[in-house]
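Hi support team,

I submitted a single chain yesterday and got back a structure, but I'm not sure I'm reading the token output correctly. Could someone confirm the output below corresponds to the sequence I sent? I've pasted both exactly as they appear in my results page.

Thanks,
R.
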Amino acid sequence: MKLFNHKRFTFLSFLLILLLFKTQGQELLTAIPVQFKAYNNSTHLEKMYVHTDKNFYVAGELLWFKIYNVDGALYQPADLSKIAYVEILDKDNKPVMQAKVQLSRGKGNGSFFLPVSINSGNYKLRAYTNWMKNFSASCYFEKPLTIVNTLKTLSAPIADTATNYQAAFFPEGGNLVKDLSSKVAFQVTDRYGKGIDCKGVLLSQNNDTLLRFQSFKFGMGHFMFTPNSTQPAKAVITLANGRTILQNLPAAYEQGYVMQVGEETTGTVKVTITSKSPIAQSAYLFAYTKQVMQVAERQNFNNGVATFSIDKNKLPDGVSTITVFNDLQQPVCERLYFKKPQQVLSVAASSNAAQYGNRKRVALSVNTQHANATTGSPANLSLAVYRIDSLQTIDPNSVLSYLWLTSELAGNIESPAYYFSTDNDEIKEATDNLLLVHGWRKFDWDRVFNDKQPTFEYVPEFDGHIISCQLKHNETAASNTSITDAWLSIPGIQMQFYNSKVNDKGKVYFDVRDYYGQNEIVIQTDNLDTTAHVEVLNPFSEKYSDVSLPAFSLATATQNALNEQSIGMQVLNTYEAGQLSRFTIPNIDTTPFYGKPSNVYKLDDYVRFTTMEEVLREYVPEVAVRRFGGQLHLKVFNYDVHDFYPSDPLILLDGVKVDNNILLGYDPLKVNKLEVVTNEYVKGEFIYLGIVNFTTYHGDMESLKLDSRAVILDYEGLQLKRNFYSPVYKTDQQASSRLPDFRNLLYWEPDVQTDASGKANVEFYTSDVKGKYVAVLQGMDNAGYAGSYYFTFDVTNK
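Hi R., thanks for writing in. Yes, this is the structure output for that exact sequence:
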């Protein structure tokens, strides 16, 4: 009887567990997409791609670049951030060049003059926004560059004696389970992440041969493996150079889940989940693409197997993440799936000839349209035309492959354009290997389930550059300081003045607009805490990806090409230095922040007095000089109440806030004009009872002595846009000029805009340097369709 009751209790408990799982299962299918959406709604992503004019440079040349910033979910031009940060880093991640570049509707462009002080080597160009600094540095855009300084003795590169090779194995779905068959991908790379072809043997613990394998493409491949033990199998890998690597596979679990994903001819993606778990009743599959949940399905296990068939039409283009949960709401399998994008911009160009002589006109007809469309579509492109030789080759990577593939995967991706080249079985297999090797990221679902909303230290610069400061006591950050107000000024004829409040962490932020080039900035506080000082924080990111640069070396066969490029650089800098230093003056509003003043006084129009007090008393009726507490104060007249304001106005000299004593002690003979604002003026959280602004002749605060606690330092603003120099040889006289033209970069245009029919015309002229040239076009339209195109032509001496 007791045995019967025990069995009955066990049976009823089992039914209750099944009922509970069923109820929880329905909730799980609804809850996870809702929680996932809520989590991602607060995590807006940006992606950035940079098109450089080429990848190889000599010191003394200009490096040109075009920035494409897109919404991380839609891949459309993003108008969130207005500032991009672009850097060139050396092999130790030390910046050698940095710039802040203005963005407009997700696009911007700039240049770097590579100084003759730079050392020869491989470098990394990277770009990001202030908002992107909240995420991993692996999310920044990066690309390798080579720079050679031919004006310095090129020492022989240190022999790279390190023979570090790495082998890694990646079970599909994440784990191996004893007695369950899994696809296992692998990759063998050198120390710089480049794939190495190999062959291998998988051995048991008893050194029995279990199977043989070999790489397929870029050092990657896969094999099917059914572990018969929880002890890890051992791989013996042989490289092409004869070197052998020993590497264990991940250990197999006694219980767990495995996943297999494959495409069906019926247009579906088949996902098979096999389980050895005693609690496995159902499997819950969720697929999301670019932060949007696309599929949420449940299947019961039948003899330990659950099968899902996902209509490919339910999955958007690009990389999708497929995650499987068990009944306990635990993620147990995950992998990536790639659907080749149809959102492609078809770019084409044709020239007026296939071969040109020196100093001849090249005319390009550019066409853009959506893939498979019959009519053109307007798009914005960047164009680079340069010579290809033993130093500079054609870069096959593009904005399309970067956005849709490279930026979605972890680690270094070799030749990403290869995966977009065609649709044959070879490409599909290589793509699947790539996704298995680079796609296992173990998304932190606990953050979603526990409603842990991400916190962000950096805000998007949706208006202008933000200068961040920290109040410090000695070298320690000061929080809850008695200092509450801070002001930043950029002295000059174009007056820039900003105010801000200090937060409880001792930080203060100034949203600075239209500040270009290098100038002095002046930062002041209300000085209530005399022991604190202000430190301006580095606006550039101080975290770095783990992608290593390859060792620098130059083949002897490149010496002639290097000499030609070096001579061309020196000739251009000698004869056309003025043309290379021409910048576009930005179209900015020079009106003071307070708008039109109530009155303006040109001091030269009046009798010159020797003290500022006399100037104000004699012919500035809106400003009175009054004595309170033994000190002189300025008061501005309030016409609304026909009396002077009770408190001091905002007093500025060349845009720098000064107090009454400093102003009244200043030499009026150095002042050009005075502007007075008699209205009460509200600027952010500050209210000023009138404004009195003095401007010197040169806007440079001549001989002004500020409080010793004021911070005055040089600060680089937004980069001025340099004009690309391209000589014109329209006439015989121009073509017969005796000035040498040794350019290897014939043309750079960051803003080729095709019209409503998708057409644009571009023209430029060849130089005196013969050889094979390539024209590279990259870009996108407002809908996020991206594409690229290149073609070659020859320049001869004819």
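A quick pointer for reading it: The first helix runs from residue 2 to 41. Let us know if anything else looks off.

Best,
Support desk
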